[in-house]
């Protein structure tokens, strides 16, 4: 009886080890996609922000529904809830955005800081300030004195861990110039339409409204989006 007991304990231990190995295959932690406190989730308490985010480098099958596509040079990023994503093969990887990239609206949870008499906005390790010329917000380096800054106000709608299972990203529309516009002109028009879209009602709080405004603007400038 003792030998049989030892035998079954050994089998259970081997199965447990195999399960842990499978869960960490590829260097990623999995918890069934429920957004728990595994290695893929970090807690940002800087400036009492007190919010959970997916860890940098974590890979997901798709970005969250309603994520905003943001162009920066030849690169394309997706932004949702203070988290930045970049294509990674057929999937998306959580990344640090480049300095200088502009977004039309701040994340839903952020901390307002006053540094050197200037307003800054902080979320998920990233600092934003008003874009010049505006509208919009630009990603910047941590300004001097940021470590000792005091929060003016905080917007934290929820401190619950984010879900890491996301819906597939909506494909970025292909832009066809109808009037023979050059690639440089296309990019200038696209950026101009992005700026104009931020001035439309509800666009700063609804990514779908922002996208429709951009498409309407590009159509008026002689482009077909499909």
TrEMBL record:
<dbReference type="Pfam" id="PF20125">
    <property type="entry name" value="DUF6515"/>
</dbReference>
<feature type="signal peptide">
    <location>
        <begin position="1"/>
        <end position="23"/>
    </location>
</feature>
<keyword id="KW-0732">Signal</keyword>
<protein>
    <recommendedName>
        <fullName>Glycine zipper family protein</fullName>
    </recommendedName>
</protein>
<dbReference type="InterPro" id="IPR045398">
    <property type="entry name" value="DUF6515"/>
</dbReference>
């Amino acid at each position: 009886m003792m030998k049989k007991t030892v035998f079954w304990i050994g089998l259970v231990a081997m199965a447990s080890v195999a399960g842990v190995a499978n869960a960490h295959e590829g260097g990623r932690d999995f918890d069934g996609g429920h957004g728990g406190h595994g290695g893929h989730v970090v807690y940002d308490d800087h400036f009492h922000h007190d919010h959970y985010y997916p860890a940098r480098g974590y890979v997901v099958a798709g970005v969250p529904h309603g994520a905003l596509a943001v162009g920066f040079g030849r690169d394309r990023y997706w932004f949702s809830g203070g988290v930045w994503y970049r294509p990674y093969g057929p999937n998306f990887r959580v990344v640090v955005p480049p300095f200088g990239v502009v977004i039309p609206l701040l994340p839903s949870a952020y901390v307002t800081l006053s540094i050197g008499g200037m307003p800054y906005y902080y979320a998920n390790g990233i600092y934003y300030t008003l874009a010049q010329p505006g509208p919009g917000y630009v990603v910047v380096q941590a300004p001097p004195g940021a470590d000792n800054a005091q929060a003016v106000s905080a917007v934290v709608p929820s401190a619950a861990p984010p879900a890491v299972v996301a819906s597939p990203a909506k494909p970025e529309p292909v832009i066809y110039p109808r009037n023979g516009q050059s690639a440089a002109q296309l990019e200038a028009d696209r950026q101009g339409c992005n700026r104009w879209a931020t001035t439309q009602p509800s666009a700063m709080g609804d990514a779908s409204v922002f996208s429709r405004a951009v498409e309407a603007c590009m159509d008026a400038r002689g482009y077909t989006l499909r």
